[in-house]
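Priority: medium. Attachment 1 of 2:
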């Protein structure tokens, strides 16, 4: 399998709960449009429009914080979801 094409759908045993709120936000003023967040996210949560990142959905977020980690401009704020977690997997 081409590792660069993998998404959350390639991982069995994963489930999400709803109602976790906007636990990740992006500051459009700070966003440089580098697309690091879009490229790193296995959940397909991000989109780039008019050179600005926006969150498409957090419904498939794995709460890995990779988007926050790769955002060199500090545009992304990451907090844990309401209730602690909205993502569960068979492996922990
Ligand atoms: S990683 Fe940060 S600066 Fe780059 S597109 Fe995403 S939000 Fe914008
Ligand atoms: S925390 Fe991980 S899965 Fe969630 S939006 Fe960021 S990179 Fe994607």
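Attachment 2 of 2:
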């Amino acid at each position: 399998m081409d590792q660069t094409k993998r998404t959350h759908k390639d991982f069995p045993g994963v489930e999400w709960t709803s109602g976790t709120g906007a636990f990740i936000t992006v500051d459009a003023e700070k966003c440089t449009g580098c697309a690091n967040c879009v490229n790193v996210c296995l959940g397909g949560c991000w989109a780039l429009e008019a050179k600005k990142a926006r969150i498409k959905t957090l419904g498939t977020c794995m709460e890995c914080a990779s988007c926050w980690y790769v955002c060199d401009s500090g545009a992304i704020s990451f907090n844990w979801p309401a209730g602690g977690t909205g993502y569960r997997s068979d492996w922990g």
